[in-house]
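Collaboration report, partner site 2.

Our partner group contributed sequences for two proteins of shared interest, and the home lab folded both. The records are reproduced in the order in which they were received, starting with the first partner submission.
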Amino acid sequence: MNTLKILLAFLALGMIAFATSTILIFDDSGSMADSITGSSTTKIDMAKQAGNTFLNNVKSGDEVSLIVFYDCGDIKTEVPFTTDLQQIRDVIAGLTPQSSTPIAKAIDYASSYAQTSGRSGAQIILLTDGEETCDSQSDAVTAATNAVANNIKIVNVVGLGLDANSTEATNDQAIATAGKGNYYGANDVGSLTSSLSQAYNGGGSGSSTCCLSSMGLPALVGAALFFSRKK
């Protein structure tokens, strides 16, 4: 019986190992108060609506952390890693656009937070409606490069209301490329929801807690059943 309990404990740990840890970096800069051409809805309200729907589709057992940047020197972990996603909904609902766009510092901050919280291997989703305005674009690219070098799994970027051929979109694409990720564009609530979901699912699964392979779990279940019958 002791053997069975041990095997089942390892099985539970194996299931946890396949959970995804995601850091959502949320742009609360001043331009989020603007509307996209042709829409009467502000970008912040679009982001709130899409964020709620996106969170509804996060897989059971996956954890999300919310980091918000308000200004160059104002970046906060508003919600630590949690599976209680209502906490994140509540914070997002209360956001009001502030000032600048510190993408480089926000990525550095998120990468450091992942390391100190024991989530080496987490994925980052950056939701922004612009480009770096506090440091240089090269700093933002370097931050994404360093993040994956320091065991962040991937940095995906979701650009809201950016013309695909604009400098802002091109710069955000470069950040995603440096972070081994993808750039997703969005111009309304529907496409933003889809882009967030693609960024989440496109980042793959598994934080560095891991290490059972997809074949390892079935094998472990079989071993548990075998030993239980032997008893």
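Second partner submission, folded after the first:
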Amino acid sequence: MAAPRLTAPLAGSLDDPARARDLARMKRLATGLFGLAAAVFLGCVLLGEEAGAWVGYVRATAEASMVGALADWFAVTALFRHPLRLPIPHTAIIPRKKDQIGESLGAFVQENFLTRAVIEEKLATIDVPGRLGGFLAAPGRAERLGGDASKILTAVTELLRDEDVQPAVAALVDRKLHDTPAAPGLARVLELVVDGDRHQEVLSAALRLMARFLDENRLVFRAQLGDASPAWVPDWVDDRVFDRAFAGIHRFIAEVGDDPRHELRRSYDARLRAYVHALRTDPETAERVEEFKKEVLEHPAIRDWSGSLWTTAKNALLAAAADPTSPLRGRVTALITDGAKLLQTDPTVRELVQRHSRRAVGYAVERFSGDLADLVSSTVARWDTEETSRRIELQVGRDLQWIRVNGTVVGGLAGLVIYTVAQILS
């Protein structure tokens, strides 16, 4: 057994008091004209033809008026309900055909309004970039939109649970790092360093650090020499040997540091360039770098770092978005302001936005027009039958009552003309 279809109420109250009063007033008017025609007809019947020839004309007019009034009352009433609650065939048309009306309305909207040609023709008459630029350029609009973007960002991040997102982000970063070859990247970095002579600056800094390290640990090195020297060698001999060796090392470090063309520097440069070449061409060198990369990525500290990326980035982003004085909010506001100016003044941007807006809306219409038509028909199908009929009657019933009024008047005139012609012919 099929489940009963749920009905949805129409928006707003069932009765619009003003429209209900107008409809009731028009019904009284139409019914009153029918009553007047009936009274005239009854009066003519009671008077009889003895009262004069004019009675026949008035009676024919009143009789035709009653027929016209009754016929149009039946026609108007049959749209919304069964006349006199009698189940006469082909009456209560709107309640019976509500779903079909909804389907027809949806198809009508789809075929006559939601078409690419209609939409593009309308958009051709609208300055889309100008309107959009004017909207964005309104005083305080950029700041409000920046604040709205912050609220949206906060709402989105609140929907995402850290325990779900954090492992996914960590896995994505880990997979990306593992899948990216390390050798080409390292070769490029070293190449930039060598081309800019940064490697020589690094060597000079290392030599200065080495000289300082030697000075700060002179006594330690002297003690190591004393421990390694035979016991029978006098201390003064060890002192002289150490001083000469220590001074020679310092002198060598100073020579390398002061001479940009020193042989050690040239050898260092050549070896580094050869290593860059090997990173690009030698599979064994690249493999060693890859193995070292994997060891680094498997280190617990690196895993903890990748696991905390989502939380760290999210907290930083939310803090910046929530702070009206943050550089992020400032950049978003400036971006909106600059975009508004471009939309209003830059011919290239304006033409691009106008063209693509037509294309995007046209695509959306072609893609979703059927869904919108289905939305119309399914929404009408869910409406309560009696409420729908009542609401439609309130919207158009007042004008439909004029059909009854016109039927009464036109019917009477038609009856008068027919009776007159009959009298002439007879």
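Feedback sent to the partner group on the second submission included the following. Residues 385-425 form the longest helix (41 residues). The chain has a mean pLDDT of 84.
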